[in-house]
Design brief:
With 83 residues, the protein is mainly α. The protein is 98% helix and 0% strand.
Length: 83
Amino acid sequence: MDENHAALETRHSKLEADLRKQDEDLHREVNDRIDGVERHHAGVSKETSKRLNALDLRISGLQGASGEAKRDINKLRDETNSL
């Protein structure tokens, strides 16, 4: 009876150790994946920020050109009206 109990206790201990190792491995794998996703997100965020800044500069340039064109049109209109 004691031998069976000892054998069961040994199997239980081994199974518990195996499950703990498996749990640690899974946690490590999940953390590695999360780190990879965070790095990817940071890179995409940085690239998106650069694109938005470039787009903002283009819009600003177009707004400036539009304002300049309006001033030129008004100047030509004033010159035409003064004739």
